[in-house]
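Q: Focus on the shape:
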Amino acid sequence: MSARLPEFVDPWLLAERGKSISGEFELVKLPRMTEVLIDTGGSVCFALNFSKDAKSRVRITGYVRAGLRLECQRCLEVMLLAVDSTLDLVVIQVPAEAERIPPECEPVLVEDGGLRIVDLIEEELLLAIPLVPMHEPGICTMCTSSTDESVQLDASTESGTVNPFAILSQLKTDRKN
């Protein structure tokens, strides 16, 4: 692991030399992630391998791993999202080059000759977050139980149509207890 993460790297030089960069740093150092996370405690671990492919394109392979504490949008409690993202990137200098890269690769646009590693890692973490983060149904405290569903089904089968308020009868009986 590298002792200190450089702010900018030259991906073409690193690929020419077949270098790797790996390390770990605190999530709090990622400004856009702090807006999304409930708790910025924890760290991100990464490994990036720079190489050239058969067509002399700069490739970055490796991984990004982190445990992200997000707010479940179903129950509004804290949930842990384990991110283990595998990278297979091709460095491009202009957006038009993205059309010529292999389909299994993702483009990474590098302008002015320098790649900011922290930004690359932050992008990967942001892309790993689901649009609506939620616990698994068996874990979330707001998931409906099978008894609630059976009450709704019983109420709808009597009249032949689905009554959207049938679930309220269950809440009414729960209150009396």
